[in-house]
């Protein structure tokens, strides 16, 4: 769990045991009601609603925004609790936050994302057949004929892969010569490549690294202002470490995967696959999802593979704030479970979501679906009761309480429970 919003969570209501809002009755007030979304603090539940042809609005706790839209989608709460939606009137799209629209208008907008504290909201935009990015109602001055891999830094910087030269249909030589660059806050870097993927900001938002394709068969890593000299058969998304002074990246050479650091081999072990790096800067710990034998997946932390394996997939690898707990979701024989510090839970879930952790990592809570019902598990123990729908749990800053946000029988419930009663 990212704990940058711990101060905000201190201000949440951790005393009231239960609050309820009837949401099913909304269905009788509108033509249709889309799926509900819940604020991080659990105080608001909201849905896009339709009251007439091409007339959409937002219903929050039973109250409807004054403005209506011809189209609306991608309703989301920001980490700091603001409610945002992508909306259109007269074929012009914009962002509307808590009922107030941005001044900017576009032909289309998508990919809304937030910084972890909610201070910055960014999205991809299309205008007059060209593409770019908007952050906090400030669009890029330069737009491009092609754009992808948009990313937002914690400080509000933006970057995306852009096509800087046109190419006629079938122009193989032009493509091979390098049409793509990385645009940072709208301005392209001077270097161009055949392909670029997965740009990553450092923690201060000052530097970037990304994966590049130099030619048909050679891949490498671009670090800050230059590409690594070495080329590889493939490469995955890099990550900054050591207070942003170094860079690690998974690379494939000789048919095997390695973790490289600053263009040199870093981990000693060699893997069938290695990707999705998680880094804890203070602990100087690096973890990755790996395959150490064909068809078997596990986690390697600091080049030490876990003993537990999955035969289908692993995802959502993450450290607790203080770095003492490392969690991942494992899928084996069609069933999901949480594995924390190489210790698996007994869940057998049909669906499973990324766990919440307190700062110490001593409390781990995850929601899951099994046989059509939603459940909460805390430290491997399934809590009593089940739900029609369950949203991401939240743990109090002191680690003593869990906020449960659920819907059952058409009633949204916000419950605060003691951790001691669940483990």
Number of strands: 44
| Low-pLDDT residue intervals, each spanning 5 or more residues | none
What is the first-to-last residue Cα distance?
19 Å
Strand count, sense and closure of the main sheet? 5 strands, antiparallel
Shape: globular
Overall mean pLDDT: 96
Structural class of the secondary structure composition? mainly beta
- Radius of gyration, Cα only, in angstroms? 23 Å
Structure description:
Strands 1, 41, 42, 43 and 44 form a 5-stranded antiparallel β-sheet that branches. Strands 2, 3, 4, 5 and 6 form a 5-stranded antiparallel β-sheet that branches. Strands 23, 24, 25, 26 and 27 form a 5-stranded antiparallel β-sheet that branches. With 423 residues, the protein is mainly beta. The chain is 2% helix and 51% strand. It is built from 2 helices and 44 strands. The longest helix is centred in the first third of the chain and has 5 residues, at 6-10.
